[in-house]
Amino acid sequence: MRAGPPPVAASIGRSPTVALLDEVQRQKARGVDVLNLSGGEPDFPTPAHVVDAAVEALRSGLTHYTPSRGIPRLREAIAAKLLRDNGIVADPGTDIIVTPSAKHAAYIALAGVIGPGDEVLLPSPAWVSYAPMITLLGGRPVDVPLDPRDNFTISAEQLASAVTPRTRAILLNSPNNPTGRMLTATEADAVARVADRYDLVVLADEIYEYIRYGDRPHLSLAARPGCEGRTLTVNGFSKSYAMTGWRLGYVTGPAAVMREVVKVQEHTVGCAASFVQHGALAALADETRGCVEEMVARYDDRRRLLVAGLNRIPGVSCADPEGAFYVLPDVSGLGFGSAQECAAWLIDRTGVVVTPGSAFGPTAEQHVRLSFAASTDILTTAVERLENALRQRAPGPAAS
């Protein structure tokens, strides 16, 4: 091929979580007994009424292009959901775009607000794809390291100290992947104060909104004083409704910004799949979210099992996640040189696949992420393998 400057894609690496999933599939194809706790995919089936609605749409011939913003009925349903559950007022005609995945929603939202050289504050640990998205768009991700000793708490001082004349936005995720933390009112107000003071856009990823434990309410930044009118909210159906393969999300924000965002949708994917949108309509029609609550109750049982099991292992400290379906235990007491080394050792010695915390930023270097979106049997077996192997391992970097 003709020599030239490297393509934009050369500036980023592969997704660590997708790469792990590929490796798991290769190992399983070779007959290796692998227990995969690295992925972020619900192991439940998509609710039957959602499947039925999509099948009916297919049989009815609803298989053609839709408006780029999404079918009007779905945007109206999303607007009603946003008002009811989040306190967000959104005009379905101008403020909402339905996208093929929440990941694409995050990407086009960023494309609508940043340009080359613009900086985006990224409190970390943070999901693995945020920084590469910013880089692909010519922006600069600015890591705002959160202290694990303080339970990864966000403060206005931390955010403000990272602001420069090039700062354009703050991107954050609650409930958080990978920590499982949920924004407190104090943290949400801190974000709002900094955004208002420096005139920043806020990008709020709320994909795990319904997967939370205990009584703490989910706080939507777009509904906070100081953030209204400057926040783009990303959400979707993959996690809460076990619809990962359906690839459907949405983004909502001020009409003036969404006029720019929709251009990216039009020139990349055009629109989300028509029949999938009809499945989402059925999902939102059940305002009680009974199927979601049933899944969350099962996740809660698994969460307790995994946290208790990990905390039995000497050298491991695991906090209770407040939302999502991940734990991020501190493994510094095991004596490995890095999270990467720990994860590699665990795969080799136990067949349990975890994600190195370093994939989510330097503040998680001494952590690994495990997903409890797996059956109780798999989690029980994984904990037994981990506990047996790690108790037998002599601590220290030189151990093998």
Summarize this entry quickly:
Residues 33-385 form the Aminotransferase class I/classII large domain. The chain is 40% helix and 12% strand.
Describe the structure.
The chain is 40% helix and 12% strand. With 400 residues, the chain is α/β, with parallel strands linked by helices. The chain is globular and about 60 Å long. It has a 7-stranded mixed beta sheet, with helices on both faces. The termini are far apart.
Primary descriptors:
400 residues; alpha/beta; Aspartate Aminotransferase, domain 1; Aspartate Aminotransferase, domain 2; 2 domains; seven-stranded mixed β-sheet; three-stranded antiparallel β-sheet; 12 helices; 12 strands; 12% strand; globular; disordered C terminus
Helix and strand topology:
Blueprint: H1 16-29, E1 35-36, H2 48-59, H3 72-86, E2 96-99, H4 102-113, E3 119-124, H5 130-136, E4 140-145, H6 156-162, E5 167-173, H7 185-198, E6 201-205, E7 231-236, E8 249-252, H8 255-268, H9 274-285, H10 290-311, E9 326-327, H11 339-350, E10 352-353, E11 355-356, E12 368-371, H12 376-392
Parallel strand pairs: 1-10, 3-4, 3-5, 5-6, 6-7
Antiparallel strand pairs: 2-8, 7-8, 9-12, 11-12
Helix pairs in contact: 2-9, 3-9, 4-8, 6-7, 10-12
Helix and strand content put the structural class at: alpha/beta
CATH homologous superfamily designation of the largest domain: Type I PLP-dependent aspartate aminotransferase-like (Major domain)
CATH fold-type name of the largest domain: Aspartate Aminotransferase, domain 2
**Residue share in β-strands:** 5-15%
Task: Count every beta strand, where a strand is a DSSP E run of 2 or more residues.
Answer: 12
What is the average of the pLDDT values? 94
The radius of gyration is: 21 Å
CATH class of the largest domain: Alpha Beta
Number of domains: 2
- Tally of separate helices: 12
CATH architecture of the largest domain: 3-Layer(aba) Sandwich
Distance between the termini: 44 Å
Low-confidence stretches: 396-400
- CA-based shape: globular
Strand order of the largest sheet: 2-8-7-6-5-3-4
Q: Describe the biggest sheet?
A: 7 strands, mixed
Q: Helical proportion?
A: 25-40%
Order of helices and strands: HEHHEHEHEHEHEEEHHHEHEEEH
